[in-house]
Design brief:
alpha/beta; 384 residues; Aspartate Aminotransferase, domain 1; 2 domains; four-stranded mixed beta sheet; seven-stranded mixed beta sheet; globular; Aspartate Aminotransferase, domain 2
Length: 384
């Protein structure tokens, strides 16, 4: 039977400490959650501003469903494009300071759509080695020539760009790296793109809503802008709902509407989600106090974990990775925290490179300082 091979592969993953399992959340996402029937303080959500369970967003979703129904019923290019979608796209473009924007069902579909639509066999894509899986899959599906440079290594990227003399060039990078929490050197990357006539695709999944003036994202954080920039951000993290968008020059967006297969050949997201996201944008704009609290929590956590035997990787974002190293040890530390009522997921290969298993501690503005103190106390106990 073919199933025996699958079962063997699963058993091998389990013996290596790499088996993935699902757990069931009851109630809304938040800093304090119920998982598999038990209450935990959670440090594993990307709900950085606590909007996933915000009552104003929930009311907007209900109101949107009453007006627009539950489902879109068709793809955007058939009859699925609602006035709610149209309004949100205009709001998102204005929010991040780009001429035009396009909604996608997920960030994964957005990245695949952009790269597939803009590049072909005669073109070249340059990718940071720590980019998100969606960017990696996008570059392979595009059939373009792939060049991967060492993490944030500008010298290597510059040499690679200089070695290519024909076809379209696209540099793509996470803005905030999802497993390391550090920022890409976006101003320097843009300068290289200007020098070598390349596009710059920025995946700001973990910067949008958190970074920059009034949560405008990583472009605002660095104070950069250029027609060369193609900006993608997700709407299920700091925005608290679901989906993603691409913002760019109008000609780029029109090209995606006509060529991006992950946009053309899928049913549009429910319009009610767009109504909820319009309210999320208002809340993000008003959330300077929450972002300030997040920064205070980051500083408090880093201070509280000084002297621990594992390395807290360098990050000034809500993603605070604690590098453990071995897969089983990372799993054991995660389970030790769980026994103490704290939920922090162990991240293991292939999500991160071999030998760099870690706890990905994700902070939310809904956490308080006592939550951080309890986490730090538990980690110090386990470390001893």
């Amino acid at each position: 039977m073919p199933f025996s091979r699958l079962q063997l592969q699963l058993e091998e993953r389990a013996s290596s400490g790499l088996l993935r399992l699902r757990h069931t959340l009851a109630g809304p996402q938040g800093a304090h959650v119920e998982v598999d029937g038990k209450r935990y303080v959670s440090f594993s959500s990307n709900d950085y501003l606590g909007l996933a369970g915000h009552p104003r967003v929930a009311r907007a979703l209900c109101s949107g469903a009453e007006i627009h129904g539950v489902g879109a019923g068709a793809a955007h290019l058939v009859t699925g494009h609602s006035i709610a979608h149209e309004r949100l796209e205009r709001e998102l473009a204005a929010f991040v300071g780009k001429p035009s924007a396009l909604l996608f069902s997920t960030g994964y579909m957005a990245n695949i759509g952009v790269v597939q639509a803009l590049l072909g066999r005669n073109d070249t894509v340059y990718a940071d080695r720590l980019n998100h899986a969606s960017l990696n899959d996008a570059m392979l599906l595009s059939h373009a020539t792939v060049r991967r440079y060492r993490h944030s290594d500008l010298d290597q990227l510059e040499r690679m760009l200089g070695e290519t003399s024909n076809g379209q060039k696209l540099v793509m990078t996470d803005a905030v790296f999802s497993m390391d929490g550090d920022r890409a050197p976006l101003p320097e990357l843009l300068a290289l793109c200007e020098q070598h006539d390349a596009w710059l695709l920025i995946d700001d999944a973990h910067g949008f809503g958190v970074s920059g003036m009034r949560g405008r994202g990583s472009l605002s954080h660095f104070g950069i802008d250029s027609p060369r920039i193609i900006y993608m951000a997700t709407l299920g993290k700091a925005a608290g709902v679901s989906g993603a968008f691409v913002a760019a020059e109008k000609v780029v967006i029109e090209t995606l509407i006509n060529n991006a297969r992950s946009y053309i050949y899928t049913t549009a997201t429910p319009p009610a989600l767009s109504v909820a996201l319009s309210e999320s944008l208002v809340l993000i704009d008003e959330a300077d106090e929450a972002r300030g609290h997040l920064q205070a929590l980051i500083k408090h956590l880093r201070k509280s974990l000084e002297g621990i035997r594992w390395r807290l990787m360098e990050s000034q974002t809500p993603i605070q990775p604690l590098l453990i190293g071995k897969n089983q040890e990372a799993t054991d530390v995660s389970m030790g925290l769980r026994e103490r009522g704290i939920w922090v997921v162990a991240i293991r290969p292939p999500t991160v490179p071999d030998g760099t298993a870690r706890l990905r501690i994700a902070l939310s503005s809904r956490h308080d300082f006592s939550d951080i103190d309890n986490l730090a106390k538990a980690l110090h106990e386990i470390a001893r």
